Amino acid sequence: MKKNEIKTSGKNYPVYIGANIFDSLEKVINTKKVYRNLFLVVDKKFQSLHRQDITRFTLNYSNKIYLHEYEACEANKNFESLLRILNDLITKNYGRDTTVIAIGGGITGDIAGFASSIYSRGVQFVQIPTTLLSAVDSSVGGKTGINFEETKNIIGSFYQPDIVLIDTEFLKTLPDEEIICGMGEIIKYAFLTDIKFFITIKNNLTKLLRLDSSITTKIVEACVNFKGDVVSRDEKESGLRKILNFGHTFAHGIEIEQNFKVKHGQAVIIGLACAIELSKKIGLLEKSLYNDFISLPLALKDKIAISGFDVEHIYEIMKRDKKGRDQKIKFVLLKDVGSLFVDVEAEENDILHSIRQGISYFIK
Ligand SMILES: NC(=O)c1ccc[n+]([C@@H]2O[C@H](COP(=O)([O-])OP(=O)(O)OC[C@H]3O[C@@H](n4cnc5c(N)ncnc54)[C@H](O)[C@@H]3O)[C@@H](O)[C@H]2O)c1
Question: Is residue 324 predicted with pLDDT exceeding 90?
Fold first, then answer.
């Protein structure tokens, strides 16, 4: 089991990565000395697929433990589900000496993390991501939250976990669609990091889609370490951290306009195509690089389908997105691999063109 360390101003925490490491959870909890009263928030679908692992852990665990099952989907990433978690924490008599453990994808991690940050003014929190997307991205960095009406993650907090444990064996039950979603964030990192990583991702797409163990663990670790480094330099997203939103302003607009029929990670892939289009349209990205860059999100175009979209509505949703101030949308745009600009504004016509063009590749 590999141990990486994320350093932030308020907290340093380990990220353990490896196959079949879930059984070491109690040892890890003891090593880090987090509170031993455990409140698990477990993704219902994951629980049904990995019941044996969870039951073995809960039966053998030597302290107070309670399992709250959560049906993870964007529609349930809301106040009602949050209240159910808080209600269980209260009625099961959990005090400040509690560690909440999220076991599931990004939705479970985001809502359980938010509950941890407000329960008893903040209890300890462990992330056990079980999707590719949550392993490479959402489980580190401390963004937590829920959706409200048509706005994603609008209510939330920055709340770093105390431990992250990534058991790559859990990823093996993911349906293809969820692997594609994780690929969305991985492709994002390909653009954010450096040309060597970009080429590695480009040359290993097929292996990654198969979750080939020779490459998956290495890529998960690289993404986690890159994000950890960005977060350690700008935890609250006042500058540098904004690059992690590359493609996401478009993605949030698309997933909401499509009423979440297009999943977050799939929307990120389409959003990356839109962001590359806009980067070219405003003259930031040179034509000579454009073909090579757009071909990366488009390599997955046969695996995503979108139909019947309303460009104007997507644009309206993007304007409401929390990253837009004074109704002006701020974009993260691309000049080159590892060279991105944040807070870029663009003309309405160019934005509408980029949405239309970016989505057009994925229309079935
Ligand atoms: N906090 C952050 O920094 C951050 C970053 C990126 C994305 N996000 C958020 O993450 C969410 C998306 O996360 P996600 O893609 O993991 O979605 P998700 O949590 O909905 O999980 C996707 C699906 O996979 C199922 N699942 C989970 N683990 C499984 C397993 N091992 N085998 C089989 N099925 C399994 C879930 O039940 C669900 O149906 C979005 O809400 C997004 O806003 C947050």
Answer: no
Q: 3-state DSSP call for residue 212?
A: coil
Which CATH superfamily groups domain 176-210+246-360? Dehydroquinate synthase-like - alpha domain (1.20.1090.10)
Q: In the chain, which segments carry CATH 1.20.1090.10?
A: 176-210+246-360
Distance in angstroms (rounded) separating the CA atoms of residues 186 and 204 = 11
Q: Note the pTM of the prediction, 2 decimals.
A: 0.96
Average confidence score pLDDT of the chain: 96
pLDDT confidence of 299, banded at 50, 70, 90? very high
Nearest CA to ligand 1 atom 13: 106
Classify domain 2-173 by CATH architecture. 3-Layer(aba) Sandwich (3.40)
Cα 134 to averaged position of ligand 1 atoms, centre (Å):
6
CA distance linking residue 32 with residue 283, whole number of Å: 49
Strands 12-18 and 2-7: antiparallel
The encoded tokens of residue 45 equal 């679908």
Distance CA 307, CA 170 (A): 32
- Measured in whole angstroms, the distance separating CA 346 from the mean position of its chain's CA atoms is 26
* 48 CA to centre of ligand 1 in angstroms: 16
How many Å apart are CA 252 and CA 112, to the nearest integer? 21
Measured CA to CA in angstroms, residue 201 lies from 55, 131, 207, 223, 288 at distances of: 36, 18, 10, 11, 20
Contact, 273 vs 297, CB < 8 A? yes
Of ligand 1's listed atoms, the one at least distance from the Cα of 175 is 33
Of 20, 76, 138, the residue with max ligand 1 atoms within 8 A of its CB, to mutate for a pocket test, comes to 138
